[in-house]
């Protein structure tokens, strides 16, 4: 017991950078004990980041917004309540590879009755509205700006209570298994959110 208390005190001093020079051996012993300690759990889930260090709005409600889909149908943030939704944001026309991954994501989302996809695209003056098969909200800029994303394309996993539960960058950035990891991650986040705290 004394050894454990001594090792803990040395580890504390080492963390503060205050280990006396004559206690170097004790400091090495403390480091080896610390190396055996279990690591803290990862803040990432397959295909998604779930920590605020990745995106500062994780754990916050999505900003209020309202607009029209490319087909003219009204959509609001409040209208997403009660369902899981992946919101994808593009500020520029993405490379074809990203559009291909988004098409695959749209197809996978269509297979899940409890998951929706909403893409938000920045309007380009003079350009025709896109004709993608997924729901697309065209934005002059304020909606996209309100999300304060670090970069685009970006995708947010939004829970039924409108809380941002996950964030990821371009789908094409991790094509090892297509969008399978993204969908597995959605299932894992749902489990974590549903689990009693």
Can you tell me about this structure?
It contains five helices and nine strands; from the N terminus they run H-H-E-E-E-E-E-H-E-E-H-E-E-H. The chain is an alpha/beta fold and 197 residues long. The chain has two domains: 2-36; 44-194, Glutaredoxin (3-Layer(aba) Sandwich). The strands form three sheets. The chain has a five-stranded mixed sheet with strand order 7-6-5-8-9. The chain is globular, with a radius of gyration of 23 Å. The protein starts with a helix and ends with a helix.
| Helicity level | 25-40%
Q: Which structural class matches the secondary elements?
A: alpha/beta
Low-confidence segments, given as residue ranges, are 1-42
Mean pLDDT equals 80
CATH class of the largest domain: Alpha Beta
CATH-assigned homologous superfamily of the largest domain = Glutaredoxin
Give the number of helices: 5
The total domain count is 2
Order of helices and strands: HHEEEEEHEEHEEH
CATH architecture of the largest domain: 3-Layer(aba) Sandwich
Total beta strand runs: 9
> What oligomeric state do these chains adopt?
single chain
Q: What percentage of the residues does DSSP assign to strands (E)? A: 15-25%
Overall geometry comes to globular
Calculate Rg over CA atoms: 23 Å
């Amino acid at each position: 017991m004394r050894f454990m208390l001594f090792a803990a005190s040395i580890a504390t001093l080492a963390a503060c950078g205050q280990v006396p020079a004559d206690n170097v051996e004790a400091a090495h012993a403390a480091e080896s004990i610390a190396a055996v300690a279990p690591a803290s759990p990862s803040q990432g889930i397959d295909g998604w980041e779930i920590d605020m260090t990745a995106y500062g709005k994780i754990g916050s409600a999505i900003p209020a917004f309202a607009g029209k889909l490319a087909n003219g149908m009204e959509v609001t943030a409040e209208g997403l309540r009660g369902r899981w939704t992946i919101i994808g944001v593009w500020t520029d026309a993405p490379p074809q590879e990203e559009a291909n991954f988004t098409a695959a994501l749209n197809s996978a989302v269509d297979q899940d009755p409890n998951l929706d996809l909403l893409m938000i695209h920045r309007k380009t003056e003079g350009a025709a509205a896109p004709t993608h098969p997924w729901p697309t909200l065209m934005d002059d800029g304020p909606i996209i700006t309100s999300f304060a994303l670090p970069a685009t394309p970006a995708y947010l996993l939004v829970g039924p209570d409108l809380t941002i539960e996950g964030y990821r960058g371009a789908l094409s950035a991790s094509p090892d298994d297509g969008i399978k990891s993204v969908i597995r991650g959605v299932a894992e986040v749902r489990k974590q959110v549903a689990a009693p705290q």
